[in-house]
Amino acid sequence: SAVISQKPSRDICQRGTSLTIQCQVDSQVTMMFWYRQQPGQSLTLIATANQGSEATYESGFVIDKFPISRPNLTFSTLTVSNMSPEDSSIYLCSVKGGTEQYFGPGTRLTVT
Amino acid sequence: DAKTTQPPSMDCAEGRAANLPCNHSTISGNEYVYWYRQIHSQGPQYIIHGLKNNETNEMASLIITEDRKSSTLILPHATLRDTAVYYCIVRVGTSGATNKLIFGTGTLLAVQP
Description:
The structure holds two protein chains of two kinds. Chain A has strands spanning 4-7, 10-13, 19-25, 31-37, 43-50, 56-57, 68-72, 75-80, 89-97, 100-103, 107-111. By secondary structure, chain A is mainly beta.
């Protein structure tokens, strides 16, 4: 299994600013994923991040708004740029290990 | 990946079996059925997955119909801690470029004391 930690666990940010979320895994993994969960909604995949290559974004998500870094096999960051209240969500990091996929505890972001 | 349909909510009495249905009528031969759950304010947790045969682990049993167009997740003795949103997901294979999990709306299971 994989243990995932995220920082910060929650934050309240001003409109127009940016926040970088960190994801740390206790083992080396090839594929990492970033999801968004808006209030009362299911999870939506933002992008897939493989070490050593550019992240692959899902429809509706762009690199300028959600830049992702993947410097090594245990770490990734997601930046939420130029935030608006519509970006208020829980952001979750996820990794694949074997046949399962593991999720971090999430970062609860509120934009005022 | 095939689309899944789940009831939005279900109730279950504590100690009784919880049977959560999922329809996936467009499932392809190489697509697996996965179940995850999300307890309030936590990240999703893997429960079980299967291709054709019924599967059982320490958490649950997965019953897949012979035509694979539907499945049922069974929690044999539900407890209050099983109250969560349960997601049924179909996905091609377990490795490769199609690894991503696409979540539907899920079923909110409320276990009643």
